[in-house]
Amino acid sequence: MKYKSITDKKYKYKLLQEENFTILKSKLLKPIKEKYFTFSEKTLDLNILKGYCWDGASGPAIDTQNFMRGSLLHDCLYQLIRDGYITPSYRKTADTLLRKICREDGMSWIRGAWVYLGVRIFGRRALK
Fold it and tell me: Are 74 and 100 in contact (CB under 8 A)?
């Protein structure tokens, strides 16, 4: 994954090349027509396009290499929920995908469990 740190009041990172994720299921409410996303309901592929900005880990969590792809997808999915593209009931799936991707990228089991617990307890606020 290629990204760079940016100095912005709202975001910490900017994606330098497209990232593709196959997500577990779709609860798409309307077709995604955004500058930085494409989604295929047929293949369940979510493409996050070059230039997308996100804020990485939240709260006391630390931005480590094994957190970056997970935080990218998680922030994108939460944004899609906030913007009305995905039903809010998809939040648990988004949280599960965060943990899954972080674990795939080398995060320890215990830290992955803490990350998941943190977003389950405090993530609802990020949807407002």
Answer: no
pTM assigned to the model: 0.90
From first CA to last CA, the distance across the chain in angstroms is 28
- Whole-angstrom Cα distance, residue 53 to residue 97? 19
Q: What is the pLDDT of residues 30-70, one digit of tens each?
A: 777 789 988 877 777 889 999 999 999 887 778 999 999 99
- Measure the CA dihedral 114/115/120/122, to 10°: 100
Paired tokens of 122: 């405090």
Token look-up 């803490």 returns 114
Residue 36 per-residue DSSP state: T
